[in-house]
Design goal:
472 residues, globular, 69% helix, single chain
């Protein structure tokens, strides 16, 4: 690339880093506004902005800044996994029964198996490790686009309940599959497979799961009685410790952070902490996805084109077929059986984070190809995901006609904020301020007996007159 626009501010130490961060923030924000015009998720705008300011277009970010932010993928993965953990409350898992588990296992594993068989059979030059890691990532589903579509059109019913539970459990299957695949890939890096080479990485992952459980217990006691800001700081510190230890020991922080979040929510029933973390996340996630776009190797497009297309199509077939057969085996309704697989198309956060881990495991050139395939397909999935999700929700009868008309006027991207409360509102709700005024200064009106309005269906018990109870 001839352009090196970063040269205008490069070589000034900390100032260079801060300017580069400002460029990434502003570029990500600007392109997310553009993606909103096309009713696409923010993640699409973030990745595209990274491509534009990256080395293949404007080249606005110095290479040393990009290299110095490698830790960002591990930290972002920690936050993503912690958020996934809140979906695994005991009462929810008990209520889902075996039906959702069977559907999730079939749709995730069939997609992974098909991707592995096809890629390894038709592209043997890529190797066993490449096919295994790609297959493991194929099992993941990104719920953001689907959730936004559900919120936008106020979708309800059995189809929506099953869909939400499946996308929550889906990432757990992906994390387990990727842990096993990365263990095998690491063991075969030397050209031979031995038992200890596979067993030890799995043992390390199990130890990290125990660490996540202990972290959840520790968090429960550390945040008790503390202010929202203090609770947020403690949670972020523990997530950072787990992610940092994962880098030191070459272990993914995903399973540990997920268990960390699940342990905390089951012990405390407190979901407000997850809202605090959600409000802390956006800058980190923006940088994570912008960095993903910067790291995308556009030069390899010519060689990965056919592999990327095969991955995109085969994964879609596997997701649809697995959801169909899973619903058939569990005797789920016909509409769920026919359309559930279409709503499982999107793939972004977890898949992109795992792609970075896979890039480290594979040789340099093959790792770059691997990352680019996942990034490109994620952009395509995020573009197609909302349309497929809407089609599935309409055909399954989950969207009422009036809600469909209202939903067309609502913004798809910003509607996810419908379920979020501003941080100051959350704080006020958690720590209500009781009035210290003497009771005599704020007397309550005496109840009025035989108020006819109380007998009205849905009527509010209005006070008609104020008088003393001692009055005749």
């Amino acid at each position: 690339m001839l352009l090196k626009l970063y040269g205008f501010y490069d070589g000034h130490g900390g100032a260079t880093t801060l300017i580069a961060l400002a460029i990434m923030f502003l570029a990500g924000f600007a392109l997310s506004r553009v993606s909103k015009l096309f009713h696409l998720p923010n993640v699409t705008g973030y990745i595209v902005s990274g491509i534009l300011i990256g080395p293949f277009v404007l080249n606005l970010v110095p290479p040393e800044v990009v290299e110095g932010m490698d830790f960002l993928s591990d930290l972002a993965l920690g936050f993503i996994a912690f958020g996934v953990g809140k979906f695994f409350k005991k009462e929810v898992l008990r209520s889902t029964g075996s039906r959702v588990i069977v559907i999730t296992l079939l749709e995730a594993l069939l997609a992974g198996i098909l991707v592995f068989v096809v890629v390894y059979a038709f592209f043997p030059e890529l190797g066993l490790s490449f096919a295994l890691l790609l297959a493991a990532i194929a099992t993941a589903t990104a719920p953001a686009s689907t959730l936004m579509t559900i919120n936008q059109y106020e979708a309800k019913g059995e189809f929506v309940e099953i869909l939400l539970q499946v996308v929550a459990l889906d990432d757990v299957v992906c994390l387990l599959c990727f842990s096993l695949a990365s263990s095998i890939a690491g063991a075969t890096a030397s050209g031979s497979i031995d038992f200890m080479g596979i067993f030890l990485p799995i043992a390390y992952n199990l130890l990290f799961i125990v660490a996540g459980f202990l972290g959840g217990i520790l968090l429960r006691f550390l945040v008790k009685g503390r202010s929202p800001n203090s609770r947020l700081i403690i949670a972020v510190a523990i997530i950072s410790v787990i992610s940092g230890c994962g880098i030191l020991l070459d272990v993914s922080p995903l399973l540990s952070c997920m268990v960390f979040g699940a342990t905390y929510v089951n012990m405390t029933k407190d979901e407000k902490l997850f809202k605090y973390v959600d409000h802390f996340n956006p800058p980190i996630m923006l940088l994570f996805f912008v960095m993903s776009g910067i790291n995308m190797d556009l030069a390899s497009f010519a060689t990965i084109g056919i592999v990327g297309i095969v991955y995109f199509l085969v994964r879609m077939i596997g997701k649809y077929a697995g959801a169909y057969f899973g619903a058939m085996l569990t005797k789920t309704g016909k509409k769920t059986r026919n359309y559930l697989g279409l709503a499982l198309a999107p793939q972004a956060g977890v898949a992109i984070g795992l792609a970075y881990l896979g890039q480290r495991i594979l040789p340099v050139e093959m790792g770059d190809t691997f990352l680019t395939i996942i990034l490109c397909s994620s952009v395509l999935y995020e573009m197609a995901g909302p349309a497929l999700a809407k089609f599935a929700l309409v055909k399954s009868g989950s969207i009422a006609p009036k809600a469909l008309a209202r939903g067309k006027k609502r913004n798809l991207v910003d509607d996810i904020e419908f379920h979020r409360l501003p941080l100051d509102t959350i704080e006020k709700r958690e720590f209500p301020v009781e009035s210290t005024a003497p009771k005599e200064e704020a007397p309550s009106p005496a109840p009025v007996f035989h108020d006819w309005r109380k007998s009205r269906p849905g009527g509010y018990p209005f006070t008609i007159a104020r008088h003393n109870q001692d009055d005749p």
